[in-house]
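Researcher: Quick test of sequence recovery. Tokens follow.
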């Protein structure tokens, strides 16, 4: 009976389960070519139904589509041949685009309700979209528009529906709890056995940053499409585990932290530490002691796994690079990127527009990518919007009694700091940045309304 209760409302779960069964069937029979076209459309239809009828459940569905689509696409490629167009990866964008209904409904009056940060970001993106549209292929420009716009749209949706904050918060906590468990567990499996579909992805993309396509050789990216986005998601999930999840959170923490370490993403490791420090200092003294105790328990769960083979050698060797960054190839490459690209980026007054940098190109600096794409004309309002968000959420005392808000704003700030290393404002990384800052803004508005009664 309990299991049946979890699958209510029946109509919503029927739609979700039909999508799951259809996807699984196509993968089993090798109908990946069919799935590439139907999966994005079917996901959009299910998402639209949930948004209209069950908006809380829509949030969880949206996150899971982001968590799993890249993995589903890899399995489809393995079963039916490589798809260089990556059509299935459009599915998460389409599902999140549905939340743009809130934008249409509320944008005109959002300025007076505190929506200026989002308005500034929308203006910057629209400006760069128009610049790109007169220079590049419409397909390329619209694809870039999805990367830039969708995260801001989602953040706005969360903020403007601030009255639903308690339900949204519960959904976030539940979704990221199970998401961390699933993504973390698969990440460990990926490292140990290197599934064939993941090997195909690595060899087909030709990116050396994934490691080698063999057991114990992959830099874990789990069910996501690359290491950076995976690290963004798992870091957010692990931080949320500090305040809720029951006993299952310790299992999620064990596999989650181990997979994060196996990603060898030093930026994410550092970001996690900074986020923990920000969160700790924002709590009241009695909550600080409880938080420190939970950290100690988490360490006890993870340490035995990280200090045994086949995990310990690769993790310890990566940790040692912190003490010798001058001779580190990755650090040297990023230094070279800044030396060569920063002067050119700073000279971009109008910017090259959306579409000037495609997803096939990799720029290990979100700052340079932003300046090259938006120019100063677009970067200033975009970053002003982010700055206003940060000022608002950190200038509030809400985080002292609501740990979720404290964690959300810490996640948002560390995501912004990662702009130094990669484009954390785009795609699922952008969803983490704008989504959690949007939740922090919604909480602030909700509690303010509660006080004013």
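Model:
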């Amino acid at each position: 009976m309990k299991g049946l209760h979890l699958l209510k409302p029946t109509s919503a779960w029927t739609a979700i389960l039909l999508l799951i069964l259809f996807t699984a069937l196509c993968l089993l029979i090798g109908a990946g070519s069919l799935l590439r076209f139907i999966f994005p459309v079917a996901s959009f239809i299910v998402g639209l139904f949930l948004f209209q009828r069950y908006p809380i459940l829509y949030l969880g569905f949206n996150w899971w589509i982001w968590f799993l689509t890249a993995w589903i696409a890899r399995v489809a490629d393995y079963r039916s041949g490589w798809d260089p167009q990556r059509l299935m990866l459009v599915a998460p964008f389409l599902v999140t685009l549905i939340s743009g209904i809130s934008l249409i409904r509320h944008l005109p009056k959002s300025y007076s309700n505190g929506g200026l940060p989002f308005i500034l970001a929308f203006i910057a993106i629209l400006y760069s979209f128009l610049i790109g549209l007169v220079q590049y292929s419409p397909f390329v420009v619209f694809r870039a528009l999805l990367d830039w716009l969708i995260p801001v749209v989602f953040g706005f949706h969360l903020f403007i529906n601030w009255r639903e904050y308690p339900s949204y918060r519960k959904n976030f906590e539940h979704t990221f709890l199970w998401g961390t468990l699933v993504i973390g567990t698969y990440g460990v499996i990926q490292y140990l056995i290197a599934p064939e579909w993941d090997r195909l992805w690595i060899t087909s993309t030709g990116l050396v940053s994934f490691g080698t396509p063999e057991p114990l050789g992959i830099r874990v990216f789990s069910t996501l499409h690359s290491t950076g986005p995976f690290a963004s998601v798992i870091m957010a999930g692990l931080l949320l585990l500090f305040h809720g999840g029951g006993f299952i959170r310790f299992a999620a923490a064990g596999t989650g932290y181990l997979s994060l370490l196996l990603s060898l993403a030093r930026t994410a490791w550092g970001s996690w530490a900074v986020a923990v420090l920000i969160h700790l200092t924002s709590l009241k003294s009695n909550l600080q002691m409880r938080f420190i105790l939970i950290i100690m328990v988490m360490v006890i769960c993870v340490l035995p796994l990280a200090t045994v083979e086949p995990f310990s050698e690769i993790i310890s060797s990566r940790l040692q690079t912190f003490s010798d960054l001058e001779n580190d190839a990755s650090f040297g490459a990023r230094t070279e990127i800044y030396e060569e690209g920063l002067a050119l980026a700073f000279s971009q007054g109008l910017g090259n527009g959306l579409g000037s940098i495609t997803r096939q190109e990799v720029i290990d600096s979100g700052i340079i990518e932003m300046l090259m794409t938006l120019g100063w004309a677009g970067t200033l309002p975009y970053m002003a919007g982010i700055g206003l968000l940060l000022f608002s959420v950190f200038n509030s005392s809400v985080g002292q009694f609501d740990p979720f808000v404290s964690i959300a704003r810490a996640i948002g700030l560390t995501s912004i700091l990662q702009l130094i290393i990669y484009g954390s404002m785009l795609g699922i990384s952008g969803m983490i940045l704008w989504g959690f800052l949007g939740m922090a803004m919604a909480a602030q508005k909700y509690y303010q309304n509660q006080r004013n009664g």
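The CA atoms of residues 158 and 389 lie 13 Å apart.
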